[in-house]
Write a structure and sequence with these properties.
The protein is mostly beta strands. The protein folds into 2 domains: 5-159, UDP N-Acetylglucosamine Acyltransferase, domain 1, CATH 2.160.10; 169-311, UDP N-Acetylglucosamine Acyltransferase, domain 1. The chain contains 1 helix and 42 strands. Strands 2, 4, 5, 7, 8, 10, 11, 13, 14, 16, 17 and 20 form a 12-stranded mixed β-sheet that branches. The chain has an 8-stranded mixed β-sheet with strand order 1-3-6-9-12-15-18-19, with no helix packed on it. Strands 23-26-29-32-35-38-41-42 form an 8-stranded mixed β-sheet, with no helix packed on it. A hairpin with a 4-residue loop joins strand 18 and strand 19. It starts with a strand and ends in a 17-residue tail after the last strand. Keywords: Transferase. This is Carbonic anhydrase or acetyltransferase, isoleucine patch superfamily.
Length: 328
């Protein structure tokens, strides 16, 4: 047995290969298809983090690595004994060596290679120096002065169900109550409050919070995916409108905006009130779309604040880290 510890509000979805003494803290979500997420011994995933492995982009995490709060890892390879600061984002194809330290809020771009014993900071992340003896002593101290590694004897575990029709918690706010299409899938740890309408075949994943209280309506179209630990809310006298075929990645905050059809908001992004995103727009991971921004059809934006970086020539396909299909 793997001695897996999963706090009550954490969720594992899919099939995994896990070592001994893995710990998943409150509010964290791990999702994996076809055993595409593998974690070594004594690794911790702290509160409200999200790790997603897919067949196209598997995740491999070594032993005695610690993810801070609200981290996101999609399709990354991460070594042993890493110390990962709060809010760090790893994007698909990034490859991290052993005993690395990441500053809070670091974004590791897709395909980035980080050598062993590196200190990495920034958005995008860059290696600023090699570990010192003091750094190594800190890593050891945080692990009870035991940085020895032993053979990982993996156990294959399957968690489910993947989702179900209206499994989540729905709350009224005064006389307002969510209206959910019968074909929508609401994961059990999602919570939806008040004046919210969700269309057909949409997916609201684990840990999502959608708050449509007295401030105004939240309107979510058909075939929309709101992924793990994302929060939707809005200011008074505003609306939050998400049109059909939109994908919102894990760990985002979407606040009082309009998002046009077929758009993709990548992981860890923030979209602020009164902004308008056109059709087929792409917001890159970790970006902040400031208040009252207008993003035209087919534009790609990135940064803090987000700025134009390119244009989509064709209509985008739903990314590999989204759900393929869920049968009710």
């Amino acid at each position: 047995m793997s001695n897996l510890r999963v706090d009550d509000s954490a969720r594992l979805v899919g099939s995994f290969r896990l070592g001994d003494n893995v710990y998943i803290a409150q509010g964290s979500v791990l999702r994996s298809t076809d055993n595409s997420l593998k974690i070594g011994n004594n690794t911790w995933v702290l509160e409200n983090s999200v790790i997603i492995g897919t067949s196209e982009h598997p995740v491999r995490v070594g032993s005695k690595t610690v993810f801070g709060h609200k981290c996101i890892a999609i399709g990354a390879q991460i070594g042993d004994l890493c110390e990962i600061g709060n809010g760090t984002i790893f994007l698909p194809g990034s490859n991290i060596g052993n005993m690395c330290i990441f500053g809070e809020g670091t974004i590791v771009p897709a395909g980035t290679m980080i050598p062993d014993e590196s200190v990495v900071v920034g958005r995008p992340g860059r290696v600023i120096r090699k570990l010192t003896d003091k750094d190594k002593n800190m890593i050891a101290r945080m692990r009870g002065n035991d940085i020895g590694l032993r053979l990982v004897e993996e156990v294959s575990l399957v968690f489910g169900p993947m989702g179900g029709k209206q499994m989540g918690k729905l709350y009224n706010y005064g006389d307002r109550y969510p209206i959910i299409d019968d074909s929508a899938v609401i994961f059990d740890s999602a919570e939806i409050t008040g004046n919210v309408k969700i269309g057909s075949n949409s997916i609201i994943a684990s840990g999502v919070r959608i708050i449509g209280n007295s401030h105004g309506p939240v309107k979510i179209g058909s075939n929309v995916q709101i992924l793990e630990n994302t929060v939707l809310h809005l200011l008074p006298d505003n609306e939050l409108i998400i049109e059909d075929n939109v994908t919102i990645g894990p760990g985002c905050v979407i606040h009082g905006t309009t998002i046009g059809p077929n758009s993709i908001i990548e992981s860890g992004s923030i979209v602020c009130d009164y902004s308008v995103l056109g059709t087929n727009t792409l917001v890159k991971s970790g970006s902040v779309v400031k208040q009252r921004s207008t993003i035209l059809d087919n534009q790609i934006v990135e940064g803090f604040p987000a700025d134009f970086v390119g244009e989509n020539v064709d209509m985008m396909e739903r990314p590999s880290w989204a759900y393929k299909q869920i049968n009710g």
